[in-house]
Amino acid sequence: MLKYIVIIIGVTVWLLSSWIGHFTDVSLKIFFLNIGQGDAILVKSPDNKYLLIDSGPDQTVLSELSAVMPFWIRTIDLVIATHPDADHIGGLLDISQRYTIALVLYNKLDESSQLAKNLKEFWQKQAIKVKGINADEDFTFGCCIFLDFLWPLAQADLSKLASNNASISFVLKYQWFSAFFGGDLSKKYEEQVAKNYRSKVNVLKVGHHGSKTSTSGVFLQIFQPQLAVISVGYKNRYGHPSLEVIKLLQDYSVKTLRTDEVDRIILTSDGRKFSVGFT
Hints:
By secondary structure, the protein is of the alpha/beta class. The chain has a single domain (23-278), classed as Metallo-beta-lactamase, Chain A (4-Layer Sandwich), CATH 3.60.15.10. It contains 9 helices and 17 strands. It is globular.
């Protein structure tokens, strides 16, 4: 009997500490999830709203979300599907079936893949709000996160762009902290985005998993990130990240972290400084 009482007390203490810890943590957290070859980034706002940027290629994202989100939270307040390639949206149907999603932002190339069509059909049946987005439509998330959308341009003809080059690209800002997310956008368009933005960012999510088709010296010179994160699968068949990109980041003195080397990456910011941890 005593053993069961001790177990109950232990579980109760754990639940209370988890609940208190969640609601007293007023920092911004960005989780670069280790989902293999693809992108999946979870953002927790200071007021405990959740934003998911892409979902990786498959169900792996579910175990990653379970590891970083409190078990009692079953709502994702915003999903941004940068573009319809399977390594970015392959896990979204599984997520949609297990979590309540308040809003999805997507690009208008979604109709180009069967996977994307299946997703849109499911979202329509579940009455999930879905909205296209472009550089003219900035967005405030939670109490104090500003999403400055930079690409695609409102006047861009997405039907003439390759899927990667239609990637939703934006700067996430929290007070004096900023991070750039550009899906798989290639160098030409990254440079255009950076030239239009003309400001530094603290953190760069490296485009296209470190492929040599993304990330140029011009781009890095304008953004001048302190930290670059590459979401990439271990010994992937594409040879990502490119040694050319790794060397370029080194040449610009950008500290670089890779999910295939350090596993899940957790960035925490108070709006001024940021720190990085691993699990």
